Amino acid sequence: MNKEELQKLKESMPPILGCLEDEYDPRDKKYVYGNVIGADKPPWNPGFDNEVEYSPLREDHQGKSLACVSFGTTNDMEMSVKKNLKQDISFSQRFIYSQIHLSGGGASPRTAYKLLNKQGVCEDKYMPTLVGHNLEETQIIDKIGLDEAQKHALQWRIGTYRSIAPTNVEALAQAIYENGGCGGGYKSFGVTMGHFVFFPAYGYHKGYMGFKFHDSYAPHDKWIIFNNGKFYLDNIQGHQVQLFSMWTAEPGDNWKNIIKETSNMNLTRKRGTEEVFLNIGGERVWIKSAEDFNKLKESQPIEGVEWKNIVDVDEFDTPYNGKIHGKADFSDWIKNRLGLGK
Q1: Among 26, 284, 307, 315, which one has the highest count of C-beta atoms within 10 angstroms of its own C-beta?
Q2: Pairing of β 208-214 and β 221-227
Q3: Fold of 3-251
């Protein structure tokens, strides 16, 4: 793809539109983000980018489906987890879209955020989406595995979700800084369907103030800029659009438990020795090898801890519980008897 073709993609609407504007609900007035702005955000220059601050989002493709709402809202969830829990998790787009899609395809943003508040969303491994250029609508509306996936989704419920007036650019920027981003739709004038994306950054782009959004179509990082109350794709000569159905969400109350459980979880090794320990639940478990650690991660909710990130310490600050994960031999038993890990 040459530069001209790439530029045209950034300036054009996506090939498939699946975001329908939310129906009017008077309750939205009670939960307006602009009324609860907290910490002062950085100025527009240099702006703020959550992907720079907390690490980039994954790059998925919605294929031939109309599931942009589920792709954008999982991006919103994933960035919130990066910001609040310092973890990288891939959530299931199929979990969301299979429950909120309209009969003719597509969905409205409020229904997605309502689902995230009531049910949460499971990790993709519990209800795989099979993302890619060939993803079909029939595949992503398939509810196979949903009953079991709902059990894993509950811990990932969001807290209060608030609407943002699409023309309130200061509130949108504030939500990006304070809440880890916001989700919303954009569309051409005079049409019903638009496209839903996640906005992780604000700042200047090509000489104008604007918002960077993470798209479910490549190239994944694009911009909407604004000037004199009008919004354009990528640049001042780009396609003029209107924003609609903008939302931002707070972490769920149950996330505090996840933070408490994972904040002190890491791999440590006393300097000058070979034995590696996992700090978990205020105690340490001896992990025999990287392979054993990966097997443990498959059976327990251990996120954000990698074997390559072992920390060498002079003294351990948690007690060793005597447990060994992996194949232990007689010499390991002797080490335990002699006080390994003290």
Answers
A1: 284
A2: antiparallel
A3: Cathepsin B; Chain A (3.90.70)
